[in-house]
Amino acid sequence: MTADMVARLQESADPSVRVAVAYSRHATPETRDRLLALVEAEDAAGSDDAAVALRWSPYKPNWLRDASLAERLTYLDCPHAVFRRILAASRDLPEEAWQRLDNDPDVSVRRAAAHRPDTPPQVLLRLLRAHGERSHVRPPLVDHPNFPRQELRDFADDPNPAVRFLALKDPGLPATELRRFKEAAESFLRAGAARHPNVSADLLEQLLADPVPQVAEAAAANPVLSQARMERILVEAGL
Q: Cβ contacts of residue 116 below 8 Å, gap of 6+?
């Protein structure tokens, strides 16, 4: 993209075009800041087009992945999180860069950095305690080889439901702890308890009567349920 093309495209009325230009390798930092500030202002004013351009644009600065280490490191101070997030997907950064990314003000940057192979256990634990897991991100951070899985049980007392849910990732979570999840206001916590391998037969029976279908279905699918009870469920359903 030539300088003339950048100059012409940045005047577009379409916020998606302006965001794409801002993410281009050929945009200067000053041009990038100005374009993104304009779209952010439009977003703040209620523009749906600006919101889509900022949050769901297919255009990302993916060229940064292939840049030299020296060039990538210049983006540690970039004010736009999308550039720092792509930088955090690197695997060859020096330790001081990882320390900064692990403490980035944007949680999505910290999550990206935490997926590197040698993330310290305390970094993973701190991130999950603060924010829980992102269900659509694979692999989950709780499955990271360095994550201290012996700490999972302590998450059962966390007031944040997203963090509390991680306790259910402990296959050895006692049945007494699982019983507490039955009273949770959030149906995904009750469904998690219904799927757990340590759930007791009597707790499963209670979860089968849950008013939320997904919870009852999770309980009905748990192998802990006796064959006779499974057959009775099928008969009652007319199957």
A: 91, 98
